[in-house]
Specification:
108 residues, two-stranded antiparallel ribbon, 46% helix, 7% strand, mainly alpha, single chain
């Protein structure tokens, strides 16, 4: 008994990506798509697993933050060297409880 010889066809990343997109578009089962595309089912499933775990492509975005951070509006220094820097917008009624908490926790 002779077995038919099979020739592996290596596909590039671009070809694999194109086939996986076609799979999603056509809505066929993996088994039906693999048979139609001349792929082994295990090969198709391997490609699908690999596509899920690949590092996503990064898209360049503009930075919404200012180019340089503004200097703190307030800087409090304790004799022991601790420093607390606060941005603008803090008001005394908010700052007093913060300082009480910091003094209670930091003086230990």
């Amino acid at each position: 008994m002779t077995t038919p010889s099979t020739t592996r066809q290596r596909r590039s990343l671009a070809q694999r990506t194109q086939l996986l997109r076609a799979l999603r578009r056509r809505g066929l089962s993996q088994q039906a798509f693999a048979a139609q595309a001349g792929l082994g089912l295990s090969t198709l499933q391997f490609w699908l697993r690999a596509a899920r775990t690949e590092t996503p492509e990064f898209v360049e975005q503009s930075n919404p933050l200012p180019a340089s951070a503004a200097a703190p509006a307030y800087q409090l220094r304790w004799p022991d060297g601790r420093v607390l820097e606060l941005g603008r917008g803090w008001v005394a009624p908010e700052l007093a409880p913060l300082l009480q908490v910091l003094e209670g926790r930091c003086s230990r």
